[in-house]
Structures are given as structure tokens and as C-alpha cells.
Amino acid sequence: MSAAEILVVCDEVSRTFGTGASAVVAVHGTSCTVTGGARIAIAGPSGSGKSTLLHLLAGLERPTRGNVGWPGLPAAVGARTHQIGVVFQSPSLLPALDVEENVALPLVIAGIGRADCAQRVTEALELVGVEDLAAKLPEEISGGQAQRVAVARVLAQRPRLVLADEPTGQLDHAAGQRLLDALLGATDHLAAALVVTTHDRAVAERLETQWSMHEGRLRTTVPGVVRS
């Protein structure tokens, strides 16, 4: 994969929720590009539209206007889904499954063979530094550890694009920085692009490219990368 390969492109994309007088435009006509190997922070306050934009990049939301394309990823939706990993604000681990089983679950659902599944799970847990928690239940680990397990669950699928929505938002500063260290190191290992939404300037400054969002409009100081 070339570092210049375009993985995702948004062309004058808007997303509106509701209709009529109660309609809310979460994202206004925005164009942006995410290339292979990118390290992008989308900063902005709560309600600025950054999570909606991330969901559009992931294909979890459909634009009301404009187009989202994935030229560097498989054309088939199912195949493309496995190439995009999404880390949500909450870990959402299944309480009845231990850490290893939580990380393995998407692979089992996808029909990955037992040996390959075990190897991927071990690698992912090691990448985020929680391999010693494999047999623990979610109730037996801290919030920061649970979020790292959620990251491992995404990494085990070996995506080419990782989209993380406020991954440090529920953590203290130290735990948040450790999680970001794990995300950056793991995506480097996988040669995956990384896009992180955050309201924390200390998090945003750790990524090479910084975009900002305000009232649904995207801005960047990097010429030619984003238009809005």
C-alpha cells in the first residue's frame, strides 16, 4: 500500500438528522481525504459534529448530501467493513466473556479459523499491552484497561484504517496517554491509517495532522487537504 493511496474521500458531504423545523445539520458540506498511513486528529467540542463525520468515514452513517467513497478499500461492503476498525467512546465489552473471548468474538463471527484467530488475539493483546489480562472478566479490569481491550478487539481484525471516536474521553490524563501510545504503536505495526476524534488538545497534538470541527464545519491548517 502506497502512503499516498486514498483510503476514504468525502465530497461535499452533509448529514442532517430530523426534518422540518426540528432538523439538525450535524455536518455541513465537507470534503476531506484520508490516505494510507495518515495520523489525523479531529478536534472540537461536544456537539461539533466530529463523531458524525467519523461515522460517515466508517460507512456507519449515510450522507444526506454529497458522497463518501473508499477507493483504496474493497468495493464490496462486507469486505470493506473488515478493513475499517472503529473504536467507540465506550468499550462495550460483553460481561460474560473474558478479555480473550471479547477480542476473539468478531473473528469468530467472521469465520476466522481457530488457529489464526488465536494468533490474532494474542498479537492484538500484546500490541496494546494487556496480554496478562486475557483470562480476566470485564468487571475485573480498570476502565483504561477495558478501553485498551476494545482497541485490541479492533486490531485483531487487522484493519487498514482505524477510526477512534473520543477513545480517551472517559479516562484520566495518564490513562488516556497510555491508550494513545498503544493506538499509535499498534497502527504503526499494522501500517494502518489512524483518525482520532477528541476534545483534548494534548491528544490532538500527538498526531501529525490536525483538523478541527466547529458547528458541523471542518477546518484544517494543512492546505489542500480539506475544503469546507
Brief synopsis:
The protein is an alpha/beta fold and 228 residues long. 32% of the residues lie in helices and 27% in strands.
Could you explain the architecture of this structure?
- With 228 residues, the chain is an alpha/beta fold.
- It has a single domain (6-227), classed as Rossmann fold, CATH 3.40.50.
- It has seven helices and ten strands.
- The chain has helices at residues 50-58, 77-81, 99-109, 114-127, 143-155, 173-190, 201-204; strands at 6-17, 24-35, 39-43, 65-69, 84-87, 161-165, 193-198, 209-214, 217-220, 226-227.
- A six-stranded mixed sheet has the order 5-6-7-3-8-9, with helices on both faces. Strands 4-1-2-10 form a four-stranded antiparallel sheet.
- α3 crosses α4 (114-127) and α4 (114-127) crosses α5 (143-155).
- It is globular and about 50 Å long.
- Mean pLDDT is 89; it is low at 222-228.
